[in-house]
Amino acid sequence: xxxxxxxxxxxxxxxxxxxxxxxxxxxxxxxxxxxxxxxxxxxxxxxxxxxxxxxxxxxxxxxxxxxxxxxxxxxxxxxxxxxxxxxxxxxxxxxxxxxxxxxxxxxxxxxxxxxxxxxxxxxxxxxxxxxxxxxxxxxxxxxxxxxxxxxxxxxxxxxxxxxxxxxxxxxxxxxxxxxxxxxxxxxxxxxxxxxxxxxxxxxxxxxxxxxxxxxxxxxxxxxxxxxxxxxxxxxxxxxxxxxxxxxxxxxxxxxxxxxxxxxxxxxxxxxxxxxxxxxxxxxxxxxxxxxxxxxxxxxxxxxxxxxxxxxxxxxxxxxxxxxxxxxxxxxxxxxxxxxxxxxxxxxxxxxxxxxxxxxxxxxxxxxxxxxxxxxxxxxxxxxxxxxxxxxxxxxxxxxxxxxxxxxxxxxxxxxxxxxxxxxxxxxxxxxxxxxxxxxxxxxxxxxxxxxxxxxxxxxxxxxxxxxxxxxxxxxxxxxxxxxxxxxxxxxxxxxxxxxxxxxxxxxxxxxxxxxxxxxxxxxxxxxxxxxxxxxxxxxxxxxxxxxxxxxxxxxxxxxxxxxxxxxxxxxxxxxxxxxxxxxxxxxxxxxxxxxxxxxxxxxxxxxxxxxxxxxxxxxxxxxxxxxxxxxxxxxxxxxxxxxxxxxxxxxxxxxxxxxxxxxxxxxxxxxxxxxxxxxxxxxxxxxxxxxxxxxxxxxxxxxxxxxxxxxxxxxxxxxxxxxxxxxxxxxxxxxxxxxxxxxxxxxxxxxxxxxxxxxxxxxxxxxxxxxxxxxxxxxxxxxxxxxxxxxxxxxxxxxxxxxxxxxxxxxxxxxxxxxxxxxxxxxxxxxxxxxxxxxxxxxxxxxxxxxxxxxxxxxxxxxxxxxxxxxxxxxxxxxxxxxxxxxxxxxxxxxxxxxxxxxxxxxxxxxxxxxxxxxxxxxxxxxxxxxxxxxxxxxxxxxxxxxxxxxxxxxxxxxxxxxxxxxxxxxxxxxxxx
Length: 978
Prior knowledge:
The protein is α/β, with parallel strands linked by helices. Among the domains are: 1-17 and 561-647, no CATH class; 19-205 and 275-294 and 506-524 and 535-559, Uridine Diphospho-n-acetylenolpyruvylglucosamine Reductase, domain 3 (2-Layer Sandwich); 298-502, Vanillyl-alcohol Oxidase, Chain A, domain 3 (3-Layer(aba) Sandwich), CATH 3.40.462.40; 859-976. Strands 12-14-13-16-17-15 form a six-stranded antiparallel β-sheet, with helices on both faces. Strand 5 and strand 6 form a beta hairpin. The two termini are 58 Å apart. Its EC number is 1.1.2.4. It is an enzyme of class 1 (oxidoreductase). Its cofactor is FAD. Residues 559-590 form the 4Fe-4S ferredoxin-type domain.
């Protein structure tokens, strides 16, 4: 039976048609029903139902990654263990199937693309254990997460790709990724100490086991024999040995690491190295023990502006020898383009000569003396350099960040500026470092020849250059142009400079056809021998790394159909995914966009389109917290939540909009009813006891949710807080600010004993000599966010205008600031209200100063004295504070009132999103999964005495999901200064 007020997802329709209307990469109708039944049944029996993702929506959302290619998986699976992985490989061998591994989905060359079984190695392969100067880590952990844990021990993992927030250790090892500071001798190949490997045969190898070689010889005698034979052949060939040593003396991820046969003496030692950089074609790295490096504690950056590329190239090795941490080369077109787009760009760069170049120089030290010595060494190197502007070493964290934004920001800029339907490809080549200046010039000429941006930059110390292209693969002439360009690029890199066609991004399908050209016949055939020895049935990642299809790099291009304007420029990089509240439950922002693009590709009324509609409503729209943190992580600031709110508005009916407007006009009655309901709920719990009371309330709301809508009626399965107490009495005379208690604090009370939040803020403000006044009649006024987030446009408009009129009156025409005690409400007022106002109303709104309670509390600190500080305090900086740039003030207030205030590792948006976490408790569980791990790690360092944030519903959600009683930071400040 249909629920009474369930939204109809089909009302969102298909996106407006763009330039391209025929999409060769549209999902086939045959997969409208999802995974073929026999395959689905087999895998559910093998791995369990929860591990098999078989809906059409699942196949589509995993089909796209950060690269330009797109294949259609038949099924997606999430194995939980090494045993599961071995069973899966055995199943493929027995049934003639193949599989491809995928973790963070940030690879750029098709190495995570598969058309049969796609294996999610991120969800369940998690775990980090620091072991002195080494770390034991599983492949699903992100690099940023790993380094956050290592930082507590003063260590770091050397590879540092710019995609650290989304790139997983599995991907970094499989691609042998580099980065801005990672030297060749510290890359993954050289850092891996031990590993647990799962071979295509299902054999599991623990390289730390002293008997590993004996076990392997017993389990895989033919493999051992062939590995030793290959080693003997390579070692005996002096010319080949020299060739391998030279090729791997610079960055090179194009092809297999044949030098593993030179560096490893036994089959197990060979395999440990061989699987690094193999892109999942030779086996699975289920766990790795890695060497780590000391973490610099202080750093500085400066722009080294030079008149020519040659001069820049000349000084890079000198600066590295002097101890530089990073030397990033940026050519004149990049610097000119940055002016007007990045705050850190010098306006004078707009007039730079074509040959002018810059080095973004970073120096880092273990302490201040170490840093000063390195700055002095760099200045000495550059003392006679033909600098076009003086050196200025920047120490401020904001200035350093702005400088690095220019280095990494061209990706975002081109992403925003590219034409409809075009891809954004990041290419990656390596030249001998001594020739990088000359090579960069040649590369710019080649890009200009094919009308691609001449925006060359990169890790000059390693000869590693990056550039971008924006081809429209929907047009054959552009595919032909791309093909011609790639062929000339191969000639430039290999024939002229003896470089590497891929430095750190991996081979994938993109450069697989050119392995023979780069390596020569002997090395190329040895790579095939290795593949056939380990994977004779070709189970793993067909056409990745090694292929017999010489045009594979020109097949299966991904289209970029037009979708809603707010999201249409998405490049599908996945940077948004680690912060998305629903990432562990349903879909991520990238996947919401990927699915929407598939809706655009499908013909109207297709079975696959209808299948997507069926699941998109809950997975994408309902489960979006619409908190906007994805826009903070996105290189081009896309807020996918805005698109979801647009869809919620499109789903609404005249009936639901009328109901919402009536609620808005009678909000005081809603508040009263809510407090009455909470009081009644409290009475039920008091009579039946907390546990049984919560169960009864949960059962009752569950019945209503099943009849009406799970997206309108909240769950009370974990109980509700008490009703709010009456607001404290205040006086207008002498008030320093007007206090507008948010309706969530007028409805929901404090979970524990003690004064309410309004009472607390009034008291601590008075103590600081800055009294607050709460006007009469605040009941019935709301920021409008509840209506905005659900897509009730009329109600949002009504409440926005009412809010303006009330604030204008209370503030005495903007004379006094307005203090709001819930950060989501503060943010909602600032972001949402202006767009609902007329020009005259907006002029009044702009005269009203709105302050969040966190801002206000920070202004109180100079007038307060701490008498009883808290001990260790865990701080949750909610998403609204992040948007308003108030995390710093939050930490200031918490640190003022506590001996140790810290943000737990893994803290992102809690997923409460007003009432959304109450509507969908599974969203809370998903959003706080990593933070719960971080809190457990923090507890290992000693007891945590308090848990604070700055938004009542967030605090309720955090308490529900973590079991810790979170409260507003104002309580902490009040208790510490009494």
